[in-house]
Each structure stands twice: as structure tokens, then as C-alpha cells.
Design a protein that fits this description.
365 residues; alpha/beta; Aspartate Aminotransferase, domain 2; 2 domains; seven-stranded mixed beta sheet; three-stranded antiparallel beta sheet
């Protein structure tokens, strides 16, 4: 196979330029005589890597000065516990957290939060975002949690910040699977978190962007290594951070800047998503279940209307170098994840295969 296109939802495709640079620097980083894997996290070599990664991410997302950027471990899933552990310490016992439920990751967040607080689901759907005017917000809630892109179900959205009810609400957003693919106003959120293994780098790094006034509010039971204020005060070095993952993330940030930054990634994401969704919509052989206005541009779940052909579809895709298209086990079907590092040529190759498979299947009994 000449070309391999990896549609995995995560760990996911990385830019080939980044992988090539990492390979070239594997044994000797910039004449240091060391691999990044071997460096002390407190040595000048790695500190320079960390500082550059933090600076580039702040630039890419236009992160305001009154926000800290943390590089942590545990993945996005761990933040479902770490967010309440860090934001409830100044709230009375029995505080309420509001949630928008839009799929599997929202569900996981809700279940975890119930260990620490009351939970109010202000709106719920697995295939769309219920109209914001109907959200049943709790007066005085600790914060409002949302997963702005559901990796499994393929629901994506941004809240309407013109809603006056959100003016004094602390918004917390899980952006794991679409961070850096669209422009956002960080100042509208109290905290944003994202696992790296989709649009940033390898599994093992979690990015947390948090407003300064939300630090120092951890519950007493919060482990020290996961106390956002301690992590921020120590510039993500309170414990040994995932150094190699931060290094790769830094290379990805540099690659993004060379491509034209987040604005260019958003343009490409829209073009790739339109190409794929148009092909799926044009065929009776495939089915999509997410409301068009909330279709993810990163994770595209779809189904064969004749699911008895699923295995044949996946085998044919693999033979053409189109990998990791099987849907999540909880929902079945297929899923194409088309993150920043997926070139439009890969999406076109998938579209060509979709059309070919449907045409061949239609000619068979």
C-alpha cells in the first residue's frame, strides 16, 4: 500500500513532518547528546522545550494572560474527577454542577461528578444539542460542564454566549477531540481541558487551561499532584511531567503555526467535513444520525444501511490503506476521525472508497 490513512479516534494520526523531526532528534536533541526521553525535567534543555510549547499554545489559542496552561497526566477522562475536586472547595456541601448531556463522554463526566456534588442535567440528547433557550440552568450552580465535541457520537457545538443567563456562569469545557481545530474565545470559559491524543500529540499529556481566580479552590481530599494551583505554581513540574509527550506536543504546535494557525485548521476542517458528509448524504447506502447543525467536523460516525456488509466494508478499506474505521463498540457502525493531521487527500480516498463500495454492493444480490 503506497498511502496509509489512519482514521483512528485516538491515539490518532500525527503530522508526518512532526514524526520525521522526532525521529531525527531521537538520539541527540539539538547537540545535547541526549534523547528528550532521557532529560531531567528540571534541566535547561527540557525547560526550554516546555517553555516553547507553553508559549506556542498560548499564541495559537490567544490564551489571555489571566489564564494558566497546565500540562498534566491522566488523560481527559481523569479531568472528570479533577475538575470537581479543584472547583468545589469554596462551595457549600451539597453544591450542584450543571451538565449538558450530548453523548458518551458527557455521560462519563456526569457519573464521575456525582461522587462529589449534586448533578443537574440541564439538557440531554445523543444526536443533537437541545435548543439553548430550553436549558434548565441551576441558579448558583458551581459551574456548567459541557463536552463540546463528542468523540464517539459525533456531536459538536459551541454555546451561544449572547445568552444573558451565561453571563455569570463558570463554563467548563471538555474539548479533547476538537481543540485547535476551530477558533474559540478562551475568555468565555472558566476552564478548558483536552487529552492530547487526538489533535495535540501522543497519549499521556492532558492540557488544562484555567482562569486564575479558579485556582486555590480544591477540596481537601484532592491529591497534591492534581491540585491545579500547586501544578500552576510549579509550572507543571510539581511532579515529573510526561516530558516526551510535551516535546511532541510542542512540535505539533510549531507545525500548526507553519500551516497558518488555528484559523487555517478551521478552514481545512470545514472543507474535509463537507467533502465527507456530502458523500454520505448523497448515498442511500449510508446513514448518519447526528442533526446536521451539530455534526462534528472531527469525528464522523456513519452506518451502512445493510449492516451485514460491515465486515466486508472494513476489509476492503484496510486493503486500500484506510485504517481504523470501525465505530466505537458502544454504538457500532463506522467512524472516520479527520483531525488536523489528516490531509484532505485521505478524506478524498475515503470518499472514493465509499462510492466504490456502494456501487459494487448495489450490483450484488
Amino acid at each position: 500500500m503506497t498511502h496509509i490513512y489512519n482514521f483512528s479516534a485516538g491515539p490518532a494520526v500525527l503530522p508526518k513532518e512532526v514524526l520525521a523531526q522526532a525521529a531525527a532528534e531521537m538520539l541527540d536533541w539539538h547537540g545535547s547528546g541526549m534523547s528528550v526521553m532521557e532529560m531531567s525535567h528540571r534541566g535547561p534543555e527540557f525547560i526550554s522545550i516546555y517553555k516553547a510549547a507553553e508559549r506556542d499554545l498560548r499564541e495559537l489559542l490567544a490564551v489571555p494572560d489571566n489564564y494558566k496552561i497546565l500540562f498534566m497526566q491522566g488523560g481527559g477522562l481523569s479531568q472528570n474527577a479533577l475538575i470537581p475536586l479543584n472547583l468545589l472547595g469554596h462551595k457549600p456541601a451539597g453544591a450542584t454542577i450543571d451538565f449538558i448531556h450530548t453523548g458518551s463522554w458527557s455521560d462519563k463526566s456526569i457519573k464521575e461528578a456525582r461522587k462529589y456534588a449534586n448533578v443537574n442535567v440541564v439538557a440531554s440528547s445523543n444526536t443533537e444539542v437541545p435548543p439553548q433557550a430550553g436549558w434548565q440552568l441551576t441558579p448558583g450552580a458551581a459551574y456548567l460542564h459541557m463536552c463540546t465535541n463528542e468523540t464517539i457520537g459525533g456531536v459538536e457545538y459551541q454555546p451561544d454566549f449572547n445568552d444573558p443567563r451565561l453571563k455569570d456562569v463558570t463554563l467548563v469545557a471538555d474539548m479533547s477531540s476538537h481543540i485547535l481545530s476551530r477558533q474559540i474565545d478562551v475568555s468565555k470559559y472558566g476552564a478548558i481541558f483536552a487529552g492530547a491524543q487526538k489533535n495535540i500529540g501522543p497519549a499521556g499529556v492532558t492540557i488544562v487551561i484555567i482562569r486564575d481566580d479558579l485556582l486555590g479552590k480544591a477540596l481537601p481530599v484532592c491529591p497534591s499532584a492534581f491540585d491545579f494551583k500547586l501544578v500552576a505554581d510549579n509550572e507543571s513540574m510539581y511532579n515529573t511531567p510526561p516530558t516526551y509527550g510535551i516535546y511532541i506536543a510542542g512540535l505539533v504546535f510549531q507545525w500548526l503555526k507553519r500551516q497558518g494557525g488555528v484559523a487555517e485548521m478551521e478552514r481545512r476542517a470545514q472543507a474535509k467535513a463537507e467533502l465527507l458528509y456530502n458523500a454520505l448524504d448523497a448515498s442511500d447506502f449510508y446513514d448518519t444520525r447526528v442533526a446536521p447543525q451539530n455534526r462534528s467536523r472531527m469525528n464522523v460516525p456513519f452506518y451502512l444501511t445493510d449492516e451485514s456488509r460491515n465486515e466486508a466494508f472494513l476489509a476492503g478499506a484496510k486493503a486500500r490503506g484506510l485504517l481504523q474505521l470501525k465505530g466505537h463498540k458502544s454504538v457500532g457502525g463506522m467512524r472516520a476521525s479527520i483531525y488536523n493531521a489528516m490531509p484532505i487527500e485521505g478524506v478524498q480516498a475515503l470518499v472514493d472508497y465509499l462510492n466504490e463500495f456502494a456501487a459494487n454492493a448495489s450490483n450484488k444480490p
